[in-house]
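pls design
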């Protein structure tokens, strides 16, 4: 085998932009003029012991010179900017043609300065060796290593790096199997290209390259590379995988036309001993597939041997042998999603290897090997199926190192973006496949401010073995890694119970959850004890959202609860309390037109009727009989109804998905022959659901919780830029005006945080009574007695409309304003700013209109404080108040003008 120096190997790989698909070879990225080098590293050592009897990470230094080397004062580091994180102590020497073993552990180094003061990362990192004069002797990068394996040079000191069986303080063993053969090098990387090109493949001397173009694993039986390969637009070639119809029980249609295609090249090197390298997989989008929306989106190329998907015995995407042998006799008369097939199989044995390449905005951002499984319940039976994607050391890299969600998936502790993932989900829209596709994405986007776990999501187009497979939701995968990343819990401490089964944790976790559910149902667990075991706000948020959505596929399914089994007082999420995880929310919002998913559905009645697999529902219904929980839940429910699910907000989110992805959805429907009733109609159904839902959601909640009256309006006003207001669980910020509806049965929490240069004076309240605190308290509790208004008043504020500055706003102020606008020179406004209700710095007839409305409103509110009859459940929603005139309705040239061209009344200074 031809040898390559460290310098040449590094330069060649960097210039070609080659991302190795296994850790078999990674460059030592610097010229090495010293005879002392890092010869071997082990980041997961369980067998080689230090003098104290413990096993630490280790490095082996090798001196290839015939003279002993003194490395006293040399630096060693895992941070490029800190080359001397560890300094070798005086008298440290490496024997001629010999080795020096150095252990690495931050704790052990405190008592032994011969131990490096940092550990080696189990996922890999870059190490730097620096001499006494500050010159870099060597940099080397290693990836994730299995236990008691190493990354090192073979032969010792040669500059040729491989994954090896660890041999501490001994001559390095020769690499075995595919690790011993360098992968072929491609002249062009995966990407988007304007036109066809000639692709060359090169290998080390003595090696032969074999390649495939259909996604199949290359072997010595594949095409032998002898001349450059012409890579061109493949979209006019015949459909292969997309032409298959054995992927669902019935109704599968072949695409009527050739689908878009990318060129896929896979290649291996075979040496003279017949050893085969790991394959290299590249995907090229050319011509038609380098146009339209692909270069502006995330595009994922999944490449796997077609047999992994469609083999009769072992293919995971097809009906296969399981369908033919397990659905005998009457068994085939059940619903399609209940039929057994290869694609319904689960577990690690139904995971298949694949190459995962992702492009964003036309640029390749990820290329690594992964494992794939079919995901879902009902949606497994659809032609377009969902995938779970797994990263494992077995596939070369234990995680994705990429921010898939553009900063939207964040750590609860500090809000920083999560950038490492041990797997992701490619979802087909679930129950929404063939209709609006994005119901779940819309729902999850609406609740990102709530206190339960949810899945960040983005959108992507998927190609399988180079063939167009349609639009997908790219989502976070719910597992122990998700909890660890989001909440700072060690994976070994995470417990997850999903659909009544243990997903992560111990059998004790499962039993604890069952005991809690059953204890609440049978009355042996009190509400106080429940609150000690469950994050109550998180639980109420979750229940309120699911009920508002009318998610009929829940809670008999799609329930997931998690907790930390270790208590950490410094981490509020490591408190041992159960918390819900939201997923699969789309089986509602008017889907299919059925009552249980419609805007007027009574979800509380449905939950009461759940018996089989209904413990979660029964627990909630039992909790509603506790007055404290019922009132807290009612308030939370109305917070979300008023803020998260308003018709304006929901329409904007739904419309944004339709506007952004309409063509992608239609193309996916055409690819899989979906019989949608019309995409625009599907989105209008969602918009109509949210427009109508509030009335029914409020009335059914009122009935289920036995509240005394229909919800009343609450309007909160604030001076923008002077302070921020919180209402219950809502952060209203410094919005000038906010409105919602609440019941009079429970207290509402209000608090204000004045800005640094502002001074809060008091609350101005009508239609409500203060039950805790007083009008001057920054934090108060109130109960509504009628339609109410609450205003935050600052020390610099005057009474709205009080232009005569007598401390009150009444008819006298209207009369004075009218005279001033009419040009009465004898009238002078004592406080003109109080009359600027439009807050535009101008006094005009529009302010007069607002003054009259304000006065009439306050008079009307006063009347409404009288005792009223309890409205019935079928009360009609209140009429919307007349729209306020907008600033654009007030052309300046039409304002009344006084002498000299100023406003009548002699004018006044602007703001």
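designed seq:
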């Amino acid at each position: 085998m031809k040898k390559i120096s460290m310098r040449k190997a590094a330069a060649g790989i960097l210039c070609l932009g080659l991302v190795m698909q296994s850790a078999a070879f990674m460059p030592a990225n610097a010229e090495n003029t010293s005879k002392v080098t890092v010869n071997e590293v082990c980041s997961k050592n369980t067998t080689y012991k230090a003098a104290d009897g413990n096993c630490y990470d280790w490095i082996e230094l090798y001196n290839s010179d015939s003279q002993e080397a003194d490395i006293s004062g040399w630096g060693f580091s895992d941070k490029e900017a800190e080359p001397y994180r560890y300094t070798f102590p005086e008298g440290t020497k490496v024997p001629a043609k010999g080795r020096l073993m150095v252990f690495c552990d931050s704790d052990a180094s405190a008592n032994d300065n011969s131990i490096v003061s940092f550990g080696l990362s189990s996922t890999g990192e870059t190490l730097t060796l620096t001499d006494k004069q500050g010159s870099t002797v060597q940099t080397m990068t290693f990836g994730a290593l299995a236990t008691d394996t190493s990354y090192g040079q073979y032969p010792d000191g040669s500059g040729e790096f491989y994954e090896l069986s660890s041999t501490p303080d001994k001559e390095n063993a020769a690499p075995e199997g595919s690790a011993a053969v360098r992968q072929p090098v491609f002249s062009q990387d995966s990407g988007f290209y304007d036109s066809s090109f000639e692709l060359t493949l090169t290998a080390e001397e003595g090696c032969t390259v074999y390649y495939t173009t259909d996604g199949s694993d290359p072997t010595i039986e594949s095409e032998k590379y002898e001349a450059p390969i012409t890579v061109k637009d493949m979209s006019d070639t015949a459909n292969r995988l997309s032409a298959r119809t054995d992927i669902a029980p019935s109704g599968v249609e072949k695409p009527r036309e050739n689908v878009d295609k990318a060129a896929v090249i896979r290649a291996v090197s075979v040496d003279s001993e017949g050893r085969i390298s790991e394959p290299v997989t590249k995907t090229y989008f050319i011509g038609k597939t380098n146009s339209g929306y692909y270069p502006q989106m995330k595009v994922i190329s999944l490449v796997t041997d077609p047999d992994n998907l469609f083999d009769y015995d072992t293919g995971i995407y097809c009906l296969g042998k399981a369908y033919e042998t397990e659905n005998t006799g009457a068994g085939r008369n059940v619903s399609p999603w209940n039929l057994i097939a290869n694609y319904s199989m689960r577990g690690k044995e139904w995971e298949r290897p694949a190459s995962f390449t992702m492009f964003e905005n036309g640029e390749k951002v990820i290329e690594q090997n992964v494992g794939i499984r079919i995901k879902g319940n009902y949606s497994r039976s659809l032609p377009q199926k969902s995938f779970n994607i797994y990263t494992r050391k077995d596939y070369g890299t234990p995680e994705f190192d990429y921010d898939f969600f553009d900063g939207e998936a964040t750590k609860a502790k500090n809000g920083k973006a999560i950038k490492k993932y041990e797997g992701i989900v490619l979802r087909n829209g679930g129950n929404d496949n063939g209709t609006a596709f994005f119901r779940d994405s819309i729902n999850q986007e609406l609740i990102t401010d709530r206190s339960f776990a949810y899945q960040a999501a983005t959108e992507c187009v998927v190609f399988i073995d180079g063939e167009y497979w349609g639009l997908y939701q790219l989502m976070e995968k719910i597992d122990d890694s998700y909890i660890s990343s989001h909440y700072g819990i060690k994976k070994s401490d995470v417990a997850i119970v999903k659909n009544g089964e243990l997903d992560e944790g111990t059998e004790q976790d499962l039993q604890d959850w069952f005991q809690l559910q059953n204890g609440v149902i049978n009355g042996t667990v009190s509400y106080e004890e429940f609150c000690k075991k469950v994050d109550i706000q998180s639980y109420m948020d979750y229940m309120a959202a699911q009920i508002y959505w009318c998610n009929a596929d829940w809670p008999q399914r799609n329930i997931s609860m998690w907790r930390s089994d270790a208590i950490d007082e410094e981490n509020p999420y490591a408190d041992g309390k159960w918390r819900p995880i939201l997923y699969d929310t789309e089986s509602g919002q008017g889907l299919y037109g059925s009552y249980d998913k419609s805007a007027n559905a009574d979800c509380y009645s449905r939950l009461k009727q759940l018996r089989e697999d209904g413990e979660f529902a029964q627990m909630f219904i039992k909790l509603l009989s506790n007055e404290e929980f019922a009132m807290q839940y009612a308030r939370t429910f109305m917070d979300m109804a008023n803020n998260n699910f308003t018709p304006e907000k929901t329409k904007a989110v739904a419309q944004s998905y339709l506007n952004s992805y309409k063509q992608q959805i239609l193309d996916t429907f055409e690819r899989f022959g979906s019989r949608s009733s019309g995409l625009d109609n599907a989105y209008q159904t969602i918009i109509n659901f949210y427009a109508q839902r509030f009335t029914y959601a409020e009335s059914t909640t009122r009935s289920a919780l036995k509240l005394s009256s229909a919800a009343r309006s609450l309007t909160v006003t604030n001076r923008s830029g002077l302070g921020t207001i919180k209402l219950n669980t809502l952060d209203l910020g410094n919005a000038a005006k906010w409105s919602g509806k609440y019941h009079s049965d429970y207290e509402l929490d209000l608090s204000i945080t004045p800005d640094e240069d502002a001074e809060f004076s008091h609350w101005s309240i009508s239609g409500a009574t203060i039950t805790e605190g007083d009008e001057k308290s920054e934090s108060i509790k109130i109960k509504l007695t009628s339609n109410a208004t609450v205003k935050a008043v600052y020390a610099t504020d005057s009474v709205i409309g009080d232009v005569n500055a007598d401390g009150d706003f009444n008819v006298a102020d209207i009369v004075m304003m009218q005279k001033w606008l009419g040009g009465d020179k004898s009238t002078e406004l004592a406080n003109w700013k109080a009359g600027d209700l439009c807050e535009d710095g101008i006094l005009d007839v529009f302010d007069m209109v607002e003054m009259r409305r304000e006065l009439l409103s306050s008079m009307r509110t006063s009347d409404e404080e009288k005792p009223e009859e309890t409205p019935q459940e079928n009360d009609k929603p209140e009429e919307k108040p007349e729209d306020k005139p907008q600033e654009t309705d007030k052309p300046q040239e039409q304002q009344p003008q006084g002498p000299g061209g100023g406003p009548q009344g002699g004018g006044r200074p602007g703001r």
